[in-house]
Amino acid sequence: MDEIKQNRNFIKSNFARLEGITTDQEKGLPHPPLQKPYDEESAKIIELPEVDLNVLKKTDIFRCLKERRSRRQFTSEYLSKKELSFLLWATQGVDKVIKDGYATLRIVPSAGARHPFETYLVVNRVDEIDNGVYRYLPLLHQLLFIFTEDDMAEKLTEANLGQRFVGDAPVVFVWSCIPYRGEWRYHISAAKAILLDAGHICQNLYITAEAIGCGTCAIGAYDQESMDNLLRLDGEDEFVVYLAPVGRY
Ligand SMILES: Cc1cc2nc3c(=O)[nH]c(=O)nc-3n(C[C@H](O)[C@H](O)[C@H](O)COP(=O)(O)O)c2cc1C
Fold it and tell me: pTM for this one?
């Protein structure tokens, strides 16, 4: 019961008012990078097409909201690169960098504009993109190739507690968080803000997937260690928080 109470108090925690805590921001420490760094020399970059509204099949916001459902059955059809570009923009795309690189303003909101997430894609059936694991680079709207691995569909299914529609989907969005991006400003209370923020991202995916004739399903039932290992994340300073397969239904 103590643990339940503790977690309820966590839900009630107020990240805007931290009593007796001096945050790293208040200490004057530099803010962490807006995007996870990578080796630019050796990077294999894929340019994404500009966001093109021709991918939209439904432009009526009422219909997109009304017809949104969690979809767990996808056809074998491929997504196009333009569709993927649109979904990445809608979920983590950057509108502008503000205050000389202090923060980004994006399509989704984020407490204190901290945007503490990275987006990984497990690509299985996307036109013009080889299968593999990629990371979205929101500052330049590009994809960074990370690795390929045999039997990815099986491994993904297993890490998602046997949810086969996840492993078999044309593309899976996997969101990791880099907690220090939030903790720099909100210290221990960053955790609440991070979880609130994750919801906005996935909801934007639901609505925009629906708008392009695709579907998605939020996934919270996964094995933490397996997913972190699968994406080669350290599980401490960066770990998976949420994921969502996308495909036509
Ligand atoms: C935080 C969260 C985690 C979820 N995890 C899973 C999951 O692991 N597997 C799954 O099939 N559905 C999952 N769902 C989808 C819910 O089951 C679904 O939203 C709910 O049944 C209502 O259906 P609807 O989305 O079609 O309205 C999750 C939804 C949320 C918001």
Answer: 0.97
